[in-house]
Specification:
- By secondary structure, the protein is an alpha/beta fold.
- A 6-stranded parallel beta sheet has the order 3-2-4-5-7-6, with helices on both faces. A 6-stranded parallel beta sheet has the order 11-10-9-12-13-14, sandwiched between helices.
- The termini are far apart.
């Protein structure tokens, strides 16, 4: 930490601050608006790996995935204007996923502001609704102070993204200023009387349900959750795309909420006599469009634990609202003991049995049976394998039919953002090179950020990408058939040969057209010594595990007559 106040450029002060705050990797696309930072990265190459991405959306997704996987703020650098607008998709993802992230944006020079200079945008107005904080640093001497604040805001309370704009002339100013020390993470805890009230509610409940989600989780918090669920006989359900917070093979696991939720799980949530939400916002996707939990007062007592005060009481009036971080609260809950052995063994067993029944895969049209492929992956992949995905009907296969066994083995955007899977997989492999990383992508989803295969090749990030190709935007086509049966518009896709495209990038590429071809293709991909892609061509009729396109259309037509 510099304390002698040696004169440095703004770019050097910023990179020194990143080193002090523990940053070892940053993602970005270079731009002339932050050349001084790129120059400072040159001198810090032994400490900070600057990963060159192919598009700012991919770079922001990588930073978000890094933050989600590691718990440390993901760092992204982009240039002004188009660079910032491209990166906004990752900021929105980080906001809804409660992921710590800092986006640094090169900005026009200070003497050119408010003139609509080349690529000028007011980032406070642009990012205000989708970031925890937006700041423009106009004085290089304030970089240590404001960057320290950015890190503290990103990780504390409800974690989330912070945006920092950097005027290009400010970055070349030379000033003498002392550095700020590394940021500190702050845990918050429940009050003693709140813990007593919680214990009383748990003692009274016959059919309690726990829902977990949100950000700020740690390995210890996950271990504490397991202990609490066992001692108090509590079934634990995961909110949308947060399935890796509880071992899916554990007898207390209830399943995941969201579009792939089992009908029985939704019945259990509606009928439970105590609902305990730990970290989860209980948002639209988790509550089935706010239909599973009554608004504003739930039919059952609600205990809502959340690190953000603005979330408590926002939608649901909780019986017991507790503002606390998940790690802080669970460290306290792990020390609680039930006054007597809870008589809930049959309840927990029934809930888990319904989850297990939902793993049974149906037959779908065509020669590729995704259920059999998922069963093979479930039984073959290492327990710590990381699964990533973007958005689309194809992701239902990864949500419903894979079992997440370890913490941070699932990286998926809760904001339903397409194009996330490939860049997230690259970031995950760079952060955890010893773990297997498998990305799921639909054909439409893949082509939104497929260019990041070049980043995987450049950095030898040996991911395996599974492209489930049905030649259409499947989710939208499904909704079309439900609401406008037979009137197909805007959803058909003409695709490249994805395996050949992967080979053009220098990857191992294969195509699977029958179920029995998949295992061999996967083994060859894993043993290729390169990043790899397997294109899985499925029948367009197989748009969901439950119903074909024709069945959805017929049902809609019948309902209309």
């Amino acid at each position: 930490m510099a304390t002698d106040k040696k004169a440095r450029t703004g770019g050097e002060i910023l990179v020194d601050a990143l080193r002090i705050h523990g940053v070892t990797r940053a993602f970005g696309v270079p731009g002339e608006s932050y050349l001084a930072v790129l120059d400072a990265f040159h001198d810090a190459a032994d400490a900070i790996d600057f990963v060159i991405c192919r598009q700012e959306g991919g770079a922001a997704y990588m930073a978000e995935a890094h933050g989600k996987l590691t718990g440390q703020p993901g760092i992204c650098f982009v240039t002004r204007g188009p660079g910032a607008t491209n990166a906004s998709v990752g900021v929105h993802t980080a906001f809804q996923d409660s992921t710590p992230m800092i986006l640094f944006i090169g900005q026009v020079a200070r003497d050119q502001m408010e003139r609509e200079a080349f690529q000028e945008i007011d980032y406070r107005r642009m990012f205000g609704p989708m970031a925890k904080w937006v700041v423009e640093i106009e004085n290089a001497a304030r970089i240590p102070e404001l960057v320290s604040q950015a890190f503290h805001r990103a990780v504390n309370g409800r974690p989330g993204p912070v945006v920092v704009a950097l005027p290009e002339d400010m970055l070349t100013d030379r000033v003498a200023v002392a550095d700020a020390p590394a940021y500190r993470r702050v845990e918050t805890y429940a009050g003693g009387s709140q813990l007593d009230d919680l214990a009383a509610l748990l003692a009274k409940a016959e059919r309690p349900m726990v829902v977990v989600g949100g950000g700020g989780w740690t390995p210890q918090a996950v271990a504490d959750l397991k202990s609490v669920s066992e001692r108090f006989a509590l079934p634990v359900a995961a909110s949308f795309r947060c399935q890796d917070l509880f071992d899916n093979a554990h007898p207390n696991y209830a399943g995941d909420l969201g579009p792939a939720a089992g009908a029985k799980l939704m019945e259990h949530l509606r009928g439970c006599d105590l609902l305990v939400s730990i970290g989860a916002r209980l948002g639209e996707m988790t509550t089935g469009g706010y239909a599973l939990v009554d608004i504003p007062v739930p039919r059952q007592p609600l205990v809502h634990i959340h690190p953000g005060a603005d979330e408590l009481g926002r939608v649901y009036h909780a019986t017991l609202p507790i503002q606390a971080t998940v790690a802080g609260f669970l460290s306290q809950a792990a020390r609680l003991s039930p006054s007597s052995a809870p008589a809930r063994a049959a309840w927990v067993e029934a809930v888990h049995a319904d989850y297990r029944a939902n793993l049974v895969h149906p037959q779908i049209p065509g020669p590729v049976q995704m259920g059999e492929i998922m069963a093979w992956l479930r039984g073959t992949l290492p327990e710590d394998a990381i699964i990533t995905n973007g958005a689309g009907n194809y992701s239902t296969w990864a949500h419903r039919f894979y079992q997440y066994r370890t913490f941070r083995s699932q990286l998926g955007p809760t904001n339903g953002s397409m194009g996330y899977g490939v860049p997230a997989a690259v970031a995950a492999k760079l952060a955890a090179p010893g773990r297997m990383v498998v990305a799921f992508a639909g054909d439409g989803c893949f082509l939104m950020n497929g260019q990041e295969l070049a980043t995987a090749a450049q950095y030898d990030a040996r991911i395996i990408v599974l492209v489930i190709n049905n030649g259409m935007y499947g989710t939208i086509r499904m909704h079309q058939e439900r609401h406008y049966p037979g009137r197909v518009s805007g959803t058909r896709l003409t695709n490249p040969d994805f395996a050949a495209l992967a080979r053009a990038y220098g990857l191992h590429g294969e195509t699977v057209e029958k179920t029995e071809e998949f295992a061999g293709a996967f083994h060859r991909a894993a043993g290729s010594g390169r990043p790899a892609l397997i294109e899985i061509r499925i029948d367009p009729e197989a748009v969901t595990p439950k119903m074909s396109l024709s069945q959805i259309r017929a049902q809609a037509l019948a309902a209309a007559t």
